[in-house]
Design goal:
This protein is an alpha+beta fold. Helices cover 41% and strands 16% of the residues. It folds into two domains: 6-91 and 100-105, Winged helix-like DNA-binding domain superfamily/Winged helix DNA-binding domain (Arc Repressor Mutant, subunit A, Orthogonal Bundle), CATH 1.10.10; 107-144. The chain has a two-stranded parallel ribbon. The radius of gyration is 19 Å and the shape is elongated. The mean pLDDT is 85.
């Protein structure tokens, strides 16, 4: 697995990226710089909607302009994500919190099932490894949950 670039963000930036569509845009633009139109085509959404989201991400310093092309007098800006992993330095973790992560994403039923199965396998793997380990250990509660995203605009 390749190491993902991490970027420290503030609370305002955290709010801007905490939407599954914006997370998908960030992931796509981390892999390859694209124009808003190319991004819209990839995610199957209206170019105007994607342009708005890209502008919000750019305004809040999550995206940057990778390069600009002029084709027959039309200026095309190619955006790229500055990172793939974001760490909010302003958010305080509870005293006993030692690690974890969170992600917003779109998943089909098939991918959701696969994700659940793989996480269960990881839990089993590390529980099994802990029985074999001879180093001193501490007790931890490892929590995994998937919650359906509630879109504020649709009132879901």
């Amino acid at each position: 697995m390749d190491k993902r670039e991490t970027m420290e963000i503030n609370l305002k930036q955290q709010k801007v990226i905490s939407d599954p569509l914006r997370s998908r845009i960030i992931a796509l633009l981390y892999e390859e710089p694209m124009t808003p139109k190319q991004t819209a085509d990839k995610v199957g959404k209206n170019p105007g909607t994607i342009y708005y989201h890209i502008q919000q991400l750019y305004k809040h310093d999550i995206l940057e302009i990778d390069h600009v092309k002029t084709e027959k007098g039309i200026v095309e800006k190619y955006y790229r994500a500055k990172a793939m992993v974001y760490k909010n330095t302003e958010k305080e973790a509870p005293a006993n919190h030692v690690g974890g992560s969170q992600s917003h994403m779109y998943l089909s039923d098939k991918l959701l099932k696969e994700l659940n199965e793989e996480v269960q396998e990881l839990f089993f793997k590390y529980a099994h490894l802990s029985y074999k380990e001879t180093a001193e250990q501490k007790a931890y509660e490892v929590d995994f949950r998937i919650k359906e995203y509630e879109d504020e605009e649709r009132g879901e």
